[in-house]
Design a protein that fits this description.
The complex is a heterodimer. By secondary structure, chain A is mostly helical. Chain A has a domain of about 80 residues. Chain A has 18 helices and no strands. Chain B is α+β, with helices and mostly antiparallel strands. In chain B, about 25% of the residues lie in helices and about 30% in strands. In chain B, strands 1, 2, 4, 7 and 9 form a 5-stranded antiparallel sheet that branches. A 4-stranded antiparallel sheet of chain B has the order 3-8-5-6. The chains are: A mainly alpha, B alpha+beta.
Amino acid sequence: MSQSDLTRSSIFSRLEFRGFCSDWGPILAIFTVSRLALLLVAAFALHDLPDLPHANEQSLTARLCRFDCNWYMSIAEHGYSTTESSNQPGATNFAFYPLFPLLTRAIAWLLGSDQLTTAFAISNICSLLALCFVYRYLTLIGAQRSTTLLVIALMCCMPQSLAFSVPYSEGLFLLLLVVAMYYMRREQFLAAGVSAALLSATRANGIFFILFALTWVWRRYGTSAFTAPWRVPEAFVPIVFAPLGLFLFWGYCLLTTGDAFAHPSSELHGWGWQFLAPWDNLPLALRSEGVPRFATLVSLVVFLGALLLLRLKMYEEFALCFACILLVWAGGATGSIFRYWLFAFPIWYVFALILRPRPVTTVVAVSILCIINIVFTWAWIQQKVFAI
Amino acid sequence: MGLDTAESLRHLSALRRWILFGALLLLGAIYLSAFALFVSHSEDFFVARHNREAVEFAAQHPVKMPATIRFQSGSPLNGLLGGGWHKPEPHGVWSSSTDSWIALTLQSGTATAILRLNASPFLSRRTPRATITLTINDKDSQCWERNMANASEPLEIHLSHEALQTRHLKIHIHLQHLTSPFAVYAGPDHRPLGVLLSSMAISDEHM
């Protein structure tokens, strides 16, 4: 590379960075306003609660750390344990992947800070960075600025988007996923591979990044990449790196419990989660009452959105989203209505494309999402099970 | 190799490509070997723990032949139930997975004995048949086909001399498949139900 090329490249990088910074403003504003609004709702919901016997349960942070948060914090504070929950037989913290609690523990140790506060901070910082990378990614694939900002708004207004701001792994997962996708498309394979490896140590469905990467390799290099992979081995780095986090966790589980698959074992005995054929499970879930039925209806809407990805020729994103949809359809006990789809930004991009030319519909749609989000945040503080 | 390597990767020399390809193949082979190790050496830790607890309980509560042990809510010997069971109910205990275990320790060794399990599988119009396999100490095994006509017939197995001499019995009940009443339109219960075990009797073959 000549000196002039280098200079040009560094100027380009600087301009790109400046552009990136200028786009931070609206993203930061959307994220901050939506978080403050949810915090306000949470504060009102807390005020509405009867007096609790323990003073520490009355604090907002304690009430925001509900459901899975307690499991993540138990891993961060005491490590993994096969001890079952007293009020949920069979449930252990092996049902949760290690990266988020490990990060919490490491950063809290480094800074000497309280683990719960650190977990809140990590979740929010990761979510904000993730939204910035969503912006970069969508811009990279040719999305207009207004559409991209609408995607960010939809993601922040989504019901259960509170999960981006409480100690849950959603923010970290979205960040690692979008970083892996972004660098894959930029052909920076080592960065994509490292992200993908961390992704599969964050949540089980992180492994589906492989489908994204395989589809990308196929479209970029054709079938010859698979028949003669030694010609472009670098493109396979993210694919081969992706299961690393998962395998390390399995290895740890085998060493500590004698069960490499302690994660699905715990999910089965504690939460009743097991694999069923989607065509068997879907009718069952639709016949069920409460959360499973609503969760399935939402997953069907998400699936329709995913189908529209095909029309946009976003095959890589479709492969990833469809695998995640199948996983939910194959799960014998669906636990969450909206939360599983917070990461599925390509689908929100499709909806944003539909909404963008229709301002009135957009306002109505965003308002409805906000109202449902408020209800779910209220329910979260009140510890209603449907808010999980 | 730095993170911003798109350009340099595009210009990898042939040798470097082959080295990278070899390294990726090696990592892939490590995954395959590790997965084989995980599958062959793993046992559901929850089931293993319940089985261990059941064996310990059985050792502390040896049974004198002949004996009939009831498995109902509040029964004193429910601790003999290992992994693969729901909570005992007033009319018995349902198995919760395709494999379930019971531990039993005899007070003294004996030459011959019959083990009888009063157990009936969950059958419905959509699942009218069930195949139940009973295995004692991973050796003696017997299989039964059950349908609507013979569902409640007890499962009887002659215990081998070898099993009886050890005094410690590990009873393994295996079902080919199980389903929930809700799944087959037979009730509101979402739990997967295998066999309903109400009692277990062990007696001398000549009695």
